[in-house]
Design goal:
Blueprint (H helix, E strand, L loop, with lengths): L2 E7 L5 E7 L3 H10 L3 E7 L61 H11 L4 H16 L4 H11 L3 H15 L4 H5 L8 H13 L2 H49 L13 H19 L5 H12 L4 H22 L4 H10 L4 H8 L1 H6 L4 H8 L4 H13 L2 H57 L1
Helix pairs in contact: 3-4, 3-8, 4-5, 7-8, 7-11, 7-12, 8-17, 11-12, 11-17, 12-13, 15-16, 16-17
Length: 447
């Protein structure tokens, strides 16, 4: 029978180092907790002949000790869910090589990271989906992340995942390492993972992140499909004008096609504007203050603002419902769910709810006072609070808003595609009309 060594606090507060025997770690943990002990750490004995050898040095903090679990173990104790090793279940103490927890430099996270350190969304979606599946199947988290790091197509993602393994081995949460890479893991992603860790449903939270990324990828692909033809036509018109003029000039004749996009003076002004717009959306929005102002502008934009608000409500409701169901205190649930809403402007409003809840106000009145939620959300929250099914009502709110926001976003993409097509048609018509007008003028002059 396997031997497990443990460190625990007895009822009187005394720290006890010892060993326990059991068929699985779950059984060993139940045996200890049934005796009133609070487990500090537990793991398979490193040396069966001297199982207390690694515990003789005294207490070891969570920040430097990684707790291990048997494959297939589903224990979600905060002290036991920190990390695991290979399928042979080895203890991993790495206090000297544990990755740092402090934030990286501003240039790394907000300049070079957004420019050259992005990870394709499809790779992120695959990682979260696979990690969720592996954890749900009972595969140890360190083994899961290590396997996915070796399979990652993106070298940046592989590097980040290897660092995450170091954080888990050091007894830290997955989100502690993820927060060091804001250019890879967005605030929404990070908040959902942190919510899963807080409430004890990490595998479900990872699945929710994968679903969110899949929907984001679908919308991006939709915009690409609807705007592909207008982009292709603009590019083709530029090439046609340049090639035609080159042929005409090679024949020793004057005249030719004229297009504003083939004029050097046009690009003197248009080129810098394109560069500035690219840097603003790629680098500027990584700055929290700029992002906050941008979210205010978007939230107040007709039609688009409503769609963004609906998506934010959906993310908030799903995270808040899951946290409430997991037993996380309401004041903490509101803050974590607000972090997951994906909009800095609404997040700031939602944060005011914490003070009201600490003063003893109900959930409905607190959310109404933030001025961040629509009447339908308030009404459904009130119903859930009255009936005791708040988490279910919030989940229904999320599903409704996700469907509504997805429909509106699809319609917006279709409208954008039509508008771009009309603009391209006008542009090409302008070139053709200009050519024939010039040709008619030259014929009349020659006659």
């Amino acid at each position: 029978m396997p031997t497990f060594e443990y460190q625990a606090k007895a009822i009187d507060g005394q720290v006890i180092n010892g060993v326990v025997f059991g068929p699985t770690m779950d059984a060993a943990m139940r045996d200890l907790t049934s005796k009133g002990m609070e487990i500090v750490r537990i793991g398979v004995a490193v040396n069966p002949n001297d199982p207390l050898a690694s515990l003789s040095a005294g207490p070891v903090s969570r920040s430097t000790a990684a707790v291990v679990a048997q494959p297939g173990s589903t224990a979600r104790s905060p002290e036991v869910a920190g990390g695991v090793e290979s399928s042979q279940v080895q203890r991993a103490f790495t206090p000297d090589v544990a990755p740092p927890t402090e934030q990286r430099s501003y240039m790394e996270t907000s300049v070079w990271g957004p420019l050259i350190g992005k990870v394709p969304i499809k790779n992120l979606s695959f990682f979260f989906r696979q990690l969720s599946t592996m954890l749900h199947a009972g595969v140890p988290i360190v083994q899961s992340v290590t396997t996915l790091a070796n399979q990652a197509e993106s070298e940046k993602l592989a590097t980040v995942l290897r660092e995450l393994v170091g954080h888990i081995n050091a007894g830290r949460n997955l989100s502690d390492g993820m927060q060091r890479y804001p250019e890879v893991f967005t605030p929404v992603t990070l908040s959902l993972v942190r919510a899963g860790e807080q409430a004890g449903f990490l595998d479900e939270a990872l699945s929710a992140v994968a679903d969110y990324l899949d929907r984001e990828m679908e919308l991006r692909n939709l915009y690409r499909r609807l705007t592909f033809m207008p982009k292709l036509e603009i590019g083709a018109s530029i090439v046609i004008v340049l090639v035609t003029n080159l042929i005409i000039s090679s024949m020793g004749k004057s005249g030719g096609l004229w297009s504003p996009l083939t004029e050097p003076t046009t690009w003197i002004f248009l080129g810098p504007l394109i560069v500035v717009a690219f840097l603003y959306f790629r680098v500027g929005l990584a700055n929290p203050r700029i992002r906050h102002n941008w979210d205010i502008l978007i939230a107040k934009t007709p039609y688009i603002g409503t769609t963004i608000r609906q998506l934010s409500m959906a993310k908030f409701g799903r995270a808040f419902g899951a946290l409430h169901k997991g037993g996380v205190p309401l004041s903490k649930s509101v803050l974590l769910a607000a972090d997951a809403c994906g909009n800095e402007y609404l997040r700031g409003k939602m944060y005011t709810a914490k003070g009201h809840m600490e003063e003893g106000m109900g959930v409905t009145e607190t959310l109404r006072g933030t001025d961040a939620f629509s009447p339908i959300v308030i009404d459904m929250v009130a119903t859930g609070e009255t009936t005791g099914n708040l988490d279910q009502m919030l989940t229904k709110v999320s599903e409704f808003y996700e469907q509504e926001a997805t429909t509106r976003a699809t319609q917006t993409a279709q409208v954008v595609g039509v508008v771009l097509f009309l603009m391209v048609a006008i542009y090409i018509g302008y070139i053709v009309i200009g050519f024939w007008s010039g040709y008619g003028a030259s014929v009349s002059t020659a006659g």
